[in-house]
Amino acid sequence: MAIKSLNKRQSALAKSEKQLQILSNGIFQNGELPTFKAKISETNQFPLQAKKLEILQINLGYMCNQVCAHCHVDAGPDRKEIMTRDTMQQCLEVIKTTGAHTLDLTGGAPEMNPDFRWFVEEAAKAGIKDFIVRSNLTIIRANKKYHDLPDFFKKHQVHVVSSMPHWTRGKTDKQRGDGVFDQSIKALQELNAVGYGIPNSDLKLDLVYNPSGAFLPGDQAAMEKDFKKALKEDFDIDFHQLFAITNLPIARFLDYLIASENYEDYMYALVEAYNPAAVKNVMCTNTLSISWDGYLYDCDFNQMLELPINSKVKHISEYNEALLEGRNIAISQHCYGCTAGAGSSCQGVVA
Ligand code: SF4
Ligand code: SF4
């Protein structure tokens, strides 16, 4: 059966307050498990504070051609929240002056925003060192108007980062929908054909792995080896790095955990795998996330939970990098997903 977004299903979990309630109540309220705040306080790491900005992550909208089972954005074709050109213009003013070395465009499927190409063309002119677009791959094959995306990415020297939950059809389609594996393979071959992902190529193509169930990812380096071997042998596909990320217990993954009666066990697993050394490198300490409507958040996960930023500066129109530095990061129990094992973020292992 096709998956629908929480929004489309009118699920109670479509509301961020409901998700935050679940994350704060039950096993965390009755003291069975320590809150994230209590845990990081044990090693004097509370409050978590933002350091110098290195990564500006912009969410161009929640619309997506896919409806993956574990999407933390609750993205899908029914989501109509997309960034306007006016807000993009405000982002461009910031991109031109920021000290950040990485610009990271995400969604949904960012390519579905009608102003995506204009924005990439304008943003590329700022010459930010690492310009990432998070592409779900299937969008390249979804419609004729997207078929030239590999050439477009190449023209603007964009670094492509794409989700690929597994090198087998069964596991990939289970998480991301029927037919996703075959279309993703074709898209990867098309990216390879224009030079992406080839050893020593400057056209960077990285893949992101996230577990297909209520378990934590294995060793990133070992998985990268397995992915490379399988994709090369089976489909002659090359890529550069594999990032292994932990699913955070929010949005559709939280819904899945609750529906499969795995929520408590998963939270226990996250807390047991807590690694104090990973705390200092969590994504929010060097990243700022901008939502489709221009509001600022500590990370993409906090954006989805609508956890407001602790700063006078709330919106891209009033951006001030110096004022944002040193702010206290807004946290809740979902943060355990960033500090489990070696720790993980949108960029893979952090510790
Ligand atoms: S995980 Fe990515 S590709 Fe899948 S529905 Fe969410 S935004 Fe779309
Ligand atoms: S979920 Fe966000 S705020 Fe929490 S630790 Fe991870 S990056 Fe930081």
Automatic annotation (TrEMBL):
* Positions of the Arsenosugar biosynthesis radical SAM protein ArsS-like C-terminal domain: 216-348
Q: Which InterPro entries match?
A: Aldolase_TIM, ArsS-like_C, rSAM, rSAM_ArsS-like, rSAM_sf
- Key word Iron-sulfur present in the record? yes
Cite the Radical SAM core domain residue spans from the record: 58-196
Q: Does the keyword Plastid apply?
A: no
Pfam families, alphabetized: DUF3641 (PF12345), Radical_SAM (PF04055)
Keywords, in A-Z order: Iron, Iron-sulfur, Metal-binding, S-adenosyl-L-methionine
Gene3D superfamilies (UniProt xref) = Aldolase class I
Q: Which cofactor does it need?
A: [4Fe-4S] cluster
GO MF entries:
catalytic activity; iron-sulfur cluster binding; metal ion binding
Instruction: Output this protein's name.
Output: Radical SAM/Cys-rich domain protein
Q: Which organism is it from?
A: Pseudotamlana haliotis
